[in-house]
Design brief:
It is a single chain. The chain is mainly alpha-helical. The chain has one domain. The protein has 7 helices and no strands. α3 runs antiparallel to α6 and α5 packs antiparallel against α6. The longest helix has 28 residues. The two termini are 28 Å apart.
Length: 267
C-alpha cells in the first residue's frame, strides 16, 4: 500500500537516512517526556535534567541570536538549492519552495514577531544540535528529491493536496505565534496563559499547525525521508506539548482542565 504513495528508494543509503532521521527526532521527543530537555527552553530553568555539554557548548546566547542560529542555515540552504539545482520538475520546485518558505518564515518571526522572556534559556550546544539537524534534513530532502527526478511517479499524486495542507499549517502556525507575541508588552517578562485561536482547546496549537506544515511537505515530496521526519517530529512535538501543559498547570492554578496539550479533545 505504501508503494502507492511513495517513490521507489534510490538506494539503501537513503532508506538508512530515513530510519535514522525518524529515530533521532523521536528520541528527543521521548527525552522531553521523561524530563531530559535540550537547553533552549524555559523548562531548563526549573529542571536540572537538561542535556549537559562541555563548558564551551554551555555558552548562553540571547534568545534572538540563538533562534537565528537555529533557522538561518536551513533558510540559506533552501535559497542555495535554487542555484545548485536550477532545472527541476514541478514537484522538486514545490518542495524547494515550501522548505525555503518554512525557514524564511521562522527567521522573519525571530526578527519581527517573537517577544523574548528574560527567563528563556538558549545554550550553544543544544542550539547547534538542532540547527545542524535542520540543515542536514533540508539538504537531504532536496538532494533526494532531485535524485529521483525521472523515476516513476507514485500511483497516488499528493503534491497539490500537500501544498494546500502546507499553507494551512504555515498560516495557522504564524497566527498562533502572533497571538503568543501579543500576550505581553516589551516591559513584561513573565508568562501568561495564551488566549485566542485554538488556545481555548489546546495549549500548543502552534505545534499542531507545525505538524500540518511538515505533513504538507511530506505529501509534496512523497519520499520516505519526509514521512519519517513528520512521524518523528510528531512524536517530538507531542512530547514538547505534553511537558508544556504540565508546566502551565504547575505555574497557574487557574489553568483550564479542558485545555489539552496538542490535539483538541484527545491529547
Amino acid at each position: 500500500m505504501f508503494q502507492s504513495f511513495l517513490y521507489e528508494e534510490p538506494s539503501a543509503i537513503t532508506t538508512t537516512i530515513s530510519v535514522a532521521a525518524f529515530a533521532f527526532v523521536a528520541f528527543f521527543g521521548i527525552c522531553e517526556i521523561i524530563g531530559k530537555h535540550l537547553q533552549f527552553c524555559k523548562f531548563c530553568n526549573v529542571n536540572t535534567n537538561c542535556a549537559s555539554h562541555s563548558n564551551f557548548l554551555q555558552l548562553k546566547l540571547s534568545s534572538r541570536i540563538g533562534m537565528l542560529i537555529l533557522y538561518t542555515p536551513s533558510c540559506l540552504m533552501g535559497f542555495a538549492s535554487f542555484l545548485v539545482f536550477p532545472h527541476v520538475g514541478t514537484r522538486c520546485m514545490m518542495l524547494k519552495s515550501a522548505v525555503t518558505i518554512h525557514f524564511l518564515k521562522r527567521v522573519l518571526e525571530v526578527l519581527f514577531v517573537h517577544k523574548y522572556s528574560g527567563a528563556m534559556v538558549l545554550v550553544l550546544g543544544s542550539v547547534l544540535i538542532i540547527s545542524s539537524s535542520y540543515f542536514m534534513l533540508v539538504a537531504f530532502l532536496i538532494y533526494i528529491q532531485h535524485l529521483i527526478q525521472g523515476y516513476r511517479e507514485p500511483q497516488v499524486d499528493l503534491k497539490y493536496v500537500g501544498l494546500m495542507i502546507f499553507f494551512i499549517g504555515i498560516c495557522g502556525n504564524f497566527y498562533h505565534h502572533y497571538l503568543l507575541s501579543k500576550l505581553r508588552d516589551k516591559r513584561e517578562q513573565g508568562y501568561k496563559i495564551p488566549q485566542g485561536g485554538l488556545f481555548s482547546m489546546v495549549i500548543c496549537p502552534h505545534y499542531l499547525f507545525e505538524i500540518l506544515d511538515f505533513l504538507g511537505i511530506s505529501f509534496i515530496s512523497q519520499i520516505s525521508l519526509s514521512f519519517s521526519c513528520v512521524v518523528g517530529s510528531t512524536v517530538y512535538l507531542m512530547g514538547r506539548s505534553y511537558v508544556t501543559r504540565k508546566w502551565y498547570i504547575s505555574k497557574f492554578k487557574e489553568f483550564p482542565n479542558n485545555v489539552k496539550a496538542l490535539i483538541p479533545f484527545v491529547f
